[in-house]
Design a protein that fits this description.
By secondary structure, the chain is mostly helical.
């Protein structure tokens, strides 16, 4: 007690030494409770709080409530974070809600006098259109291909960097460079590398005698274009995947490998029964991030292939972009975005269910 609520009650001299004092607020009063060693209440005295000096005026009930309200740590936390929470709601929640509202309307800027609410008509038109299913198939091919190679290359490089060899530290540092390059920059950079006339890749392969003439890597053959996109996506995600798996590898107890060596377990058996089970959850996390990244990829497609050749690399996000900024049909474009969001949500829930089916992740 610091004396803010008036004179403090003195302990009567005739009370047994076993009595103790406890204080709490009860109905706008400071209640002093005396209890014995068995925690039975002996006496309870209400003490009115001392008025805070305010220039000769006592604080009103509202002012006293505000003082108590402002002294709470939780309230101070909300007051300090409140402005940022409001800003985040304005710049994220409002656009999301407004875009969903537009997806329920016929909203084509080429027909500004014909904008009206149409319900789920945009969604039914998309789901009954072959263009959507074609772009969804392209998206699935790209996502699945990138997923497989991201896991394999990340795992292989992590196992390599987990071994001791000369130059391991330099290799770990250089490995981070692709991760620092944004998707658009990576797309433009690889577009120049794949250039059919003066690209570095054609020049290198020609000098080594592997090819006899320059090839178009992203502008002629649909399969080569898709393979090139998957390669760039894997190259860009490789550092992060490797770091995650390398950290998990370094957390595996060395005693397990020593015991397996004593039991004359083969290299494959040690990988299958020791390494792989310990890496199951990190691999699942990489699969989640890779799948989400593949489903929403846009910058790489825009910078590297532009959806071509033909529509062979025209993913759902790029189709939505074309609907919005070429056809100016923002209702259809937003409906595309929300259909993809729903698909991503379903896949994410499946991944999370698999991830947690054996219990919580061990820390």
């Amino acid at each position: 007690m610091d004396g803010r609520f008036g004179p403090q009650p003195r302990r009567p001299s005739n009370l047994p030494t076993a009595l103790t004092f406890s204080t709490k607020f009860y109905q706008e009063q400071l209640r002093v409770i005396m209890i014995d060693k068995n925690y039975n209440t002996v006496a309870s005295v209400g003490v009115q709080p001392m008025p805070v000096p305010t220039g000769g005026r006592e604080l009103s009930a509202w002012q006293r409530w505000w003082l108590r309200f402002n002294e709470s740590p939780e309230v101070r936390a909300y007051l300090m974070n409140g402005p940022m929470i409001i800003i985040l709601l304005l710049i994220s929640a409002f656009p999301i809600g407004y875009s969903f509202w537009i997806s329920l309307q016929k909203y084509n800027l080429r027909q500004p006098n014909n904008i009206h609410f149409s319900g789920l008509d945009n969604y039914t038109r998309i789901l009954s259109n072959g263009e959507f299913w074609t772009s969804l198939g392209v998206t699935a091919t790209f996502t699945f291909g990138a997923l497989i190679f991201e896991v394999l290359t990340g795992l292989g490089l992590a196992i390599l960097l987990n071994e001791k060899f000369v130059g391991r530290g330099i290799l770990r540092s250089v490995m981070l460079l692709p991760w620092a390059i944004p998707g658009v920059v990576a797309g433009v950079m690889w577009k120049w590398i794949f250039n059919p006339k003066f690209g570095v890749l054609n020049g290198l392969l020609f000098q080594l005698g592997i090819i006899k003439e320059y090839h178009s890597w992203v502008g002629f053959d649909p399969r080569v274009a898709m393979a090139s996109l998957i390669f760039v996506q894997v190259w860009n995600a490789l550092p992060f995947n490797t770091i995650v798996l390398l950290a998990a590898l370094q957390g595996i107890p060395g005693d397990l490998y020593e015991a397996a060596t004593v039991d004359r377990a083969s290299l494959w058996s040690r990988f299958r029964y020791i390494t792989l089970p310990w890496l199951a959850q990190p691999i699942m996390i990489i699969m989640i991030l890779s799948t989400m990244g593949g489903l929403r990829v846009f910058d790489l497609i825009y910078a590297l292939t532009g959806g071509g050749p033909g529509d062979s690399t025209k993913v759902v996000t790029f189709t939505a972009y074309k609907k919005a900024f070429d056809a100016l049909d923002f209702g259809i474009a937003n409906a595309y975005a929300y259909i993809l969001t729903f698909i991503t949500l379903i896949i994410g829930l499946i991944y999370i269910r698999i991830l947690y089916k054996k219990g919580e992740i061990e820390q």
